[in-house]
Prior knowledge:
The chain is mainly beta. About 0% of the residues lie in helices and about 55% in strands. It has 1 helix and 18 strands. The strands form 4 sheets. Strands 4, 5, 7, 8 and 9 form a 5-stranded antiparallel β-sheet that branches. Strand 4 (about 55-60) and strand 5 form a beta hairpin. It is elongated, with a radius of gyration of 21 Å.
Amino acid sequence: MCCSVAAAASLSTAHAAEAPITLTATTPDGARAPLVGLVRLQGEVPGAGPDDSVRITEKQCGLTLFALLLETHVERNGRFVQTVGASIKTEFRVEWRGRFSAPVTVQARPSVRLAQVTRSRFRVEVVALRYFRRAQVQLQRAQGGRWVTIKRARLTRSFPAGTSLWTTGFVIAAPPRGANVRVVLPRSQTGECYIDGISNTLVVRR
């Protein structure tokens, strides 16, 4: 996945000779990859001043059209910065007076949570904008400086909760007490709208 792409394009031949609108995406701390969750969009609109506002639009995975996300004023030099969320693979684009930046694609991970219910029963919850019923997850144990898959299981139940979609299931396994474990929803199971999901790490205590 390409998580940070410099965008430089104009779709209007009338503005072909003008400097292009630029758009880049980073994490809030400035890292360029991978981009998931909160995204810092910044760019420059040549010719725009402090009294001008630009439109930031988005197209979520599975949709065909860009929709308005927000409008923001630019600084005196035509630059702007906004922090937005990406809860699914999303393309962002900037528009000003009929000119557009090239889109920037930001990937997202489903939220995966792991909890120990009994000595050998672990509950898995996946929260996203898609259901993952029948998807196969991997319970992994930290061993020798790497993660080793010790059990696979399928998610079995799906239901909506607010604006999110939940998919849950259980993994039956008995790793030794004190082991560090996690669950992974691999890329092969997430489809085109998400990259792999990785849960919290917990210590087996029962």
